[in-house]
Amino acid sequence: MKSKILALSAISSAFITIILTLGSYVEIADLSCIILASVFVTLPLYLKSYKGCFLAYIAGGVLALICSLPTITFSVTLPAYALFSGLYPIIKNILTDKGVNKYVNLIIGLIWCVLACYGVYFYYTSVTNLSINNLPKFIFDYILFFVGLMGVAFYFVYDKFLNVTKYVIDKNLGKIIK
Fold it and tell me: Which pTM was predicted?
């Protein structure tokens, strides 16, 4: 790997580590930290390096796991990062660069996001023993439907967010990296 790619991957993994660790310790910021970490995963894509992205994804996740070991069972940050938000931006860009139809890309991402939302829901209810009994009866009866619906809504907002941030990152990194 070139030195620029390694340096950008190291910077990316450092930001991922800091953000995911922050999300593990500050419960109110976990969702925003998951989304922000996925932005930093895509930094090496500026240099067209998927290896750099995977390196940043793995190194950032492992370092964040080490830094947040005391809170690991109560935080949803690392499981959500590992299941969806860390890998999805990389896979999405690989599929787009390979010329996969945008509707196929949409269906893959949508299914993946909904399955990740179900995974996070079951993680929260079984591992952390989150009680959902105090929800209104209508929501409690159809909780799996609502989790899937929230996954679909989240996917469309998240996908648009990734497109905008990729454009902004490419524009700004073009000014910095020569």
Answer: 0.84
**Residue 93, Cβ density class (10 Å: 0-12 exposed, 13-18 middle, ≥19 buried):** middle
Judged by DSSP in three states, 147 sits in helix
129: its two tokens: 């023993």
Q: Is the pLDDT of residue 126 over 80?
A: no
Residue 13's pLDDT band (boundaries 50, 70, 90)? very high
Is residue 79 within 8 Å of residue 128, measured between CB atoms? no
DSSP class of residue 49? -
For 101, which DSSP code? -
Residue 26 CB partners (closer than 8 Å, separation 6+): 33
Within 10 Å of residue 152's Cβ, how many Cβ atoms?
12
